[in-house]
């Protein structure tokens, strides 16, 4: 992961924390204060794990990611990392973690990856332990204008072609229940896109950057996006529309438990 991309993910963490007013949703605060073992699944540059590690020094945080994008030298003593593909095998034994956190993998996991990832997370979670998932519903932007709608259509087609579930955020509760988890609690937050102050502006900047990054695959579904200038102009038009129509991105956060028996 390039420095620019890592910076974007760090900023993304800040945006989400400010918009959601929290770093997690499961009722684990007391446990974290007393000391538990936590897995940050698909941790990226580990902003969440670092901040949580500093906030809860008695707990132990393990981050896992498919590539080495996390800092290896400067880190809190209670945070460590492994490289691994969460959809294939998480290199920890059964019933290791009290709490599992995972977010923003909606463009990274295929339909079957989600099934196998949740199966693996279930395996490494202790009975009674909590899983906490969060994803944006890119298909469900409120008050999207025509440019944004056509961008979403292209994203939908690109996702389907790659077997990536385009509305995974709305399916998380059902998928957790199918994987064996129980007592799911869902929170849906509408986050402003390019309006309503700093959070809206920053979220749009992040959204725009993410779309610029995936232009090559988007162009496979929509040939007119092969021209980078045409594509950027289209995205900037989306930003203007979002500002005018007061668009919102729906953010889904859901937690559930592994049964005790």
UniProtKB/TrEMBL annotation:
Identify the PANTHER family for this entry: 2-METHOXY-6-POLYPRENYL-1,4-BENZOQUINOL METHYLASE, MITOCHONDRIAL, METHYLTRANSFERASE
Show the InterPro entries listed in the entry. Answer: Methyltranfer_dom, SAM-dependent_MTases_sf
Domain named Methyltransferase is located at: 33-141
Q: Output one GO MF annotation.
A: methyltransferase activity
What Pfam families does its record include?
Answer: Methyltransf_31
Question: What taxonomic ancestry is recorded?
Answer: Eukaryota, Fungi, Fungi incertae sedis, Mucoromycota, Mucoromycotina
Q: Which residues cross the membrane?
A: none
Q: What is this protein called?
A: Methyltransferase domain-containing protein
Domain of life, per lineage: Eukaryota
What is the organism of origin for this protein?
Mucor plumbeus
């Amino acid at each position: 992961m390039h420095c620019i991309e890592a910076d974007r993910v760090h900023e993304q963490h800040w945006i989400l924390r400010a918009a959601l007013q929290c770093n997690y949703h499961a009722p684990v605060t007391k446990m974290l204060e007393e000391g538990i073992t936590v897995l940050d699944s698909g941790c990226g540059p580990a902003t969440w794990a670092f901040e949580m590690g500093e906030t809860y020094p008695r707990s132990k945080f393990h981050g896992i990611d498919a590539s080495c994008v996390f800092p290896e030298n400067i880190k809190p003593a209670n945070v460590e990392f492994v490289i691994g593909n969460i959809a294939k095998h998480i290199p920890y034994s059964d019933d290791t973690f009290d709490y599992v956190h995972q977010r923003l993998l909606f463009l990274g996991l295929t339909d079957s990856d989600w099934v196998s990832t949740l199966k693996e997370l279930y395996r490494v979670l202790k009975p009674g332990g909590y899983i906490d998932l969060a994803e944006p519903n890119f298909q469900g932007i409120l008050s999207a204008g025509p440019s944004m709608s056509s961008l979403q259509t292209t994203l939908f087609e690109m996702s389907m072609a790659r077997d990536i579930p385009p509305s995974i955020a709305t399916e998380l509760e059902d998928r957790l229940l199918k994987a064996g988890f129980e007592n799911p609690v869902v929170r849906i937050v509408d986050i402003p896109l390019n309006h309503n102050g700093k959070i809206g502006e920053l979220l749009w900047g992040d959204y725009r950057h993410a779309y610029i990054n995936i232009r090559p695959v988007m162009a496979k579904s929509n040939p007119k996006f092969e021209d980078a200038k045409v594509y950027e102009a289209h995205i900037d038009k989306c930003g203007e529309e979002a500002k005018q129509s007061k668009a919102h991105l729906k953010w889904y956060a859901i937690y559930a438990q592994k049964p005790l028996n």
